[in-house]
UniProtKB/TrEMBL annotation:
One of its GO terms (cellular component) is cytoplasm. Residues 312-397 form the Reductase C-terminal domain. One of its GO terms (molecular function) is oxidoreductase activity, acting on NAD(P)H. The lineage of its organism: Bacteria, Pseudomonadati, Pseudomonadota, Gammaproteobacteria, Pseudomonadales. InterPro entries: FAD-oxidoreductase/Apoptosis, FAD/NAD-bd_sf, FAD/NAD-binding_dom, FAD/NAD-linked_Rdtase_dimer_sf, Reductase_C. This is Pyridine nucleotide-disulfide oxidoreductase. It comes from Pseudomonas aylmerensis. Residues 5-292 form the FAD/NAD(P)-binding domain. SUPFAM superfamilies: FAD/NAD(P)-binding domain, FAD/NAD-linked reductases, dimerisation (C-terminal) domain. Pfam families: Pyr_redox_2, Reductase_C. It comes from the Bacteria. Keywords: FAD, Flavoprotein, Oxidoreductase.
Amino acid sequence: MNDALIIVGAGHAGGRAALTLREEGYSGRLILIGDEAHLPYERPPLSKGLLQGSIDLAGCSLCDEARLAELDIEHIAGNPVRQLDPAQQRLQLADGQWLAYAGLLLATGGRARRLPQAQANVLYLRTHDEALALKAALRPGARLVVIGGGFIGLEVAATARGLGCDVTLLEAGPRLAGRVLPPVISEALLDVHRLHGVEVRLNVALESIDADAVVLVDGQRLPCDLVVVGIGMQPNIELAAAAGLDVGQGIRVDAHLRTSAPNVYAAGDVCEFRLDGQYQRQETWRNAEAQGRHAALNLLGRELAFESLPGFWSDQYDWGLQTVGVSTALTVSRPLPTGGLLLFYLDAEHHLQGACGWAPGNSVAKDIKLCERLISARIPLNPTSLADPDLSLKQLLRG
């Protein structure tokens, strides 16, 4: 019987799973298959350090070629998987070769969602190569239109302003990052971007993208040299769906990250798992890291339920945004001495369920870590105490 473990998807989640398997003592054949030519790398630096030129691919990578060779991890690039055959526990590569597996991890991620009005001056940002193409175009004085007021669009806008570009950001909704942030943080984001010279337009509808301008439905024409589209990610579920696996907005898994096919797991951006009874995906560094490790352990037979708290961060100019846990209707706000704020999300019994922090630099990180401990501790909290900036979270943690 073939004892090979195969990982399809050589991004952050897939790469972390491969490294974890070796760290945990797996010594059998281990194959990592990726669509990109590059070694596994982390995506957050693409919209910041890599565009700015302060970091290169090596600085984003989880490991180098020497480390892969040392760990005897077979990295297949440029020969993607054509089809899965779960009944026979095998898969076929584009060159026709079949590979059998004892366990399989699908960490296929996704690709940038495309606009139908595509033109030559339209760029996207999902991969390292797309980041390099965008970096080359971000010249001082370049007129840039960013379509999409989510985190990719906002981070590109901030980086482009720092590089001397003229930036207009278009958002179809009434506020920035409206699907994931409360109104008060959306407003803070709007203020900081406008303060740094970004022309932000909300509630706009796109008519077309011409070679030298973006045209809005109301007839306004926005001249530009370049358009960056950040309107979300399209999960790569086609391979799983064609093989008959259960899919929704991603590849659906149980509490152990196991798919509907025997010995097949999923992790990362493409993984759709239950949180509070609802299926969801999480496109975050934290999720890719946690699920990559977790899926590796379960490939080794650990049978561990996945229970990691969600969370993400984003850098906007010299301000930092961090979240942990989930939001609820009962929200308590605490002003911070730095001018930022902390939001606490409580359940009906006043247990902390989540928190969101906005502050200069990385100053909110300690508070968010303490909030994570408060969530785990399940201590009933006094909303008045939470709102008091003079009462430390450490005191609340001590009860």
